[in-house]
Amino acid sequence: MHLDPTRLAGATNFRSLGGLPAADGRRIRPHALMRADRLSGLSEDDWGALGRAGLTTICDLRSEEERGEHPNNPPPHLGVRELRFGIRNDLRADPALARLIASDPTARGSERVMIEIYRRLPGYMGPTLSAIVDRLLDGGAPLLVHCSAGKDRTGFVIAMLLRALDVPEPLIRADYLASRHWPGAESHRASLEERLRPVVAPEELRASVDAVLDVRDVYLDAALQALEDEFGTTRRYLEAAAGVDEGRIELLRRTLLA
């Protein structure tokens, strides 16, 4: 499931999803879908590895502010197309989420905020999923989806694409949870501590930051439950919120599976 070399030096939450079993006994084509955290630390060798994997499209889910702080800067000679979406569903972008933590300044309160962030993801991500599928059907694979940490926004988008491809649910869950304790998490800790320190009890600060940095079953469950409450099924969600009907799902499978 990984590029050779098996990890990129400058992206600590990277993986390729090629080889996962999907619909009708087929598998995802090598490196057709990849996921990562921010790409600003990629070395020349890292970009070379992605180039050899055929990288065609980068889907950047971060806000303009995040991109300004940590730009991607893919080498021009790779000819990679970047799609930028600006999903602002996090503590920095939404003061209401910080107020929610302030109402329960504990690690449990931080977990509740993450659950709320995930509960909102289906509503935020419909147009994004539509654009990503459009790009995939227009020759945009191999395609890499990423955000800052590569676990929440990216995790939901990838889970929806894998569901569309009929990857078995335990493998979708395993891929999501593979971001648990990702090596780059500590690089985000200082900024999160600074953001949470004014509203979280000092003795709860480390555990609260852990809750934000983690991926947990209860987080993904919140997104899936919100989806099911409004749309009933993932297929109906993809069709109603993203314009991805049965015909486009079949085209997507023909494009990405072998």
Describe this structure in words.
With 258 residues, the protein is an alpha/beta fold. It has a single domain, classed as Protein-Tyrosine Phosphatase, Chain A. Helices cover 50% and strands 7% of the residues. Strands 1-2-5-3-4 form a five-stranded mixed sheet, with helices on one face. The longest helix has 31 residues.
Summary of the model, kept short:
With 258 residues, this protein is an alpha/beta fold. It has helices at residues 44-52, 64-69, 95-102, 107-137, 153-164, 169-177, 186-196, 205-213, 217-231, 234-242, 246-256; strands spanning 15-16, 33-36, 57-60, 81-84, 143-146.
What portion of the residues fall into strands of 2 or more residues?
A: 5-15%
Low-confidence stretches: 1-6
Reading off the top of the CATH hierarchy, the class is best stated as Alpha Beta
Quaternary structure state of the chains depicted:
single chain
Shape: globular
Question: In total, how many beta strands?
Answer: 5
Fourth CATH level, the homologous superfamily: Protein tyrosine phosphatase superfamily
Helix content: 40-55%
CATH fold call: Protein-Tyrosine Phosphatase, Chain A
Strand order of the largest sheet: 1-2-5-3-4
Mean pLDDT: 93
Q: H/E element string?
A: EEHEHEHHEHHHHHHH
The tally of helices reads 11
Spatial separation of the terminal alpha carbons:
15 Å
Indicate the CATH architecture: Alpha-Beta Complex
| CA radius of gyration | 18 Å
